[in-house]
Amino acid sequence: MSQDELVEDPTAEATPPECDAKPADTDLELERGVGPEDGEWQAASEVDEAFVPEPIVLIPSPVDGLPIPADERPGLQLAPRFSVDNLVCLEDRRRYVEVFEEELLDEYEDWGHFAQSHESNLLTYRTIHDEDGKERQRRVFSASLVEKLYGRDVVCVCSAEGVAMRGAIYTIIPVRPLRPVCEHYKRQLFNNDDQPDPNKPGHRILFRNCTARRSVGGAFLSLRDQAVYACEHRTPADPTSTALLDAIDDKALTEVVEEVPLFNLR
Question: What is the residue range of 214's domain?
């Protein structure tokens, strides 16, 4: 099978000689007018590449009699709203949780230096496990209570055993956002060739990508107009995602196949 035949049919099975790509075969010359958006890989591409077009059945619209697809649904098909709930990659700063001692020393090295400084009597923190070896429940704080001290997010709590500060007795609890931003979530802001005037709307295009996933060609997964409800590629990990994905797996493992209705409709 020749290389030309492989290009015409990407799904064709190649023999070992055809799999031995030469450096010249992998070169890609960008044409004039090609922008960053042409290098993005859409999640739907995995399905679209093997999609076989089918004829669309049209019927008269009950509203105006014009032809419409038979399976057309009412309402606009809008992209999911860009929000903390719809995109697990984002940082959730609506609430904050305490940081345990083990995290201070491992993930927050600068906190360790602070704890050893002369201000250490202000800082209070707990270990992940209690005296019985059980995992502690993190204390949760409203975002309105958080302030910046020594370059870190903290919550100052009134305490009889604390240190006099701001006219009261306080202790400092180190905190972090309920869900930190994922390190694989990256953004870029490019110009739009279709709108060359930088002072007009539409000149800037924001690209949101997941660098943990790539297409066969190496393009990052685009997160524009897309929802990500749970992800185990996330760093740091998101316990809510893990729980949601575990529940889906547990249901699939325990559900009897014969009891599942046709097309999984209930």
Answer: 183-252
Q: What is the pTM of this model?
A: 0.63
Q: Name the one residue in this structure whose structure tokens are 């209570």.
A: 145
162 and 113 housed in the same domain: yes
| pLDDT in single tens digits along all 266 residues of the chain | 555 554 556 556 666 566 566 666 655 565 555 666 666 666 666 555 555 677 888 888 877 878 888 777 666 677 889 999 999 999 999 999 998 888 876 655 566 555 555 444 577 788 889 888 998 999 999 999 998 877 788 888 876 555 555 555 667 888 999 999 999 999 999 998 888 898 998 899 899 999 999 888 888 999 988 899 999 999 999 999 999 999 999 988 887 666 656 665 65
- Angle at CA of residue 106, ends 149 and 156, nearest 5°: 25
Residue holding tokens 């953004």?
187
Largest CA distance in the chain: 83
Last residue of a domain, one of 146, 179, 212: 179
